[in-house]
Amino acid sequence: LEIPTISNGAWEKYSHETQKPVELLKRIILSSSNQGDLVMDPFGGSGTTYAVAEAFGRKWIGVEREIKYCEIIKERLADT
Q: What are phi and psi of 40, to 5 degrees?
């Protein structure tokens, strides 16, 4: 797989040290689930998994213990 890393000026860049590229999660979610399926991510981080799951008609459930990352996830999911 050739998926570029996220550069500082990228449209998808959020303030998280280990943020994964949208394209990576898109490939994982689309290849391992169907619309309406439930996607679980116990390490919410910047919310990439949740945003991609919603964009492609998957339900999701996740966990994030850091309030600052919960705020990023909330902001990200509100950005259509």
A: -115, 130
Sorted by sequence, the CB contacts under 8 Å of residue 12 that are 6+ apart come out as 6, 19, 21, 22, 48
Mean pLDDT of the chain: 89
- 57 dihedral zone (left: phi>0; alpha: psi -120 to 50; beta): left
Give the span between the Cα atoms of 80 and 76, in whole angstroms: 8
Tell me the Cα Rg of the chain. 12
Joined together, the tokens standing for residue 64 give 């994030």
At residue 66, what is the residue type? E
pLDDT of 80: 63
- Give the closest residue to 62 by CA, choosing from 76, 48, 79: 48
The answer to whether 3 and 20 are in contact (CB under 8 A) is: no
**Whats the size of the chain, residue-wise?**
80
End-to-end CA distance of the chain: 27
